[in-house]
């Protein structure tokens, strides 16, 4: 059985069993843009399932990104 973290990491909708996945300030995440995932960091949690994120590559900041477009960052281990 997968939990909500696994579902979100697998590109799910961030919800499983009626429970929302939540993200914390300073958490490394991935953001979905047109089916591509971009590494970013949570800057602000607005408390309404939207977040401000800063992208790792160009440090661009976007505001009020819905949780449905975010997932826990996938970490590859050797």
UniProtKB/TrEMBL annotation:
Domain Agenet-like intervals: 31-71
Protein name in the entry: Agenet-like domain-containing protein
Organism: Aphanomyces astaci
InterPro entries hit by this protein: Agenet-like_dom (IPR008395)
Region named Disordered: 1-20
Pfam families (alphabetical): Agenet (PF05641)
Compositional bias (Low complexity): 1-10
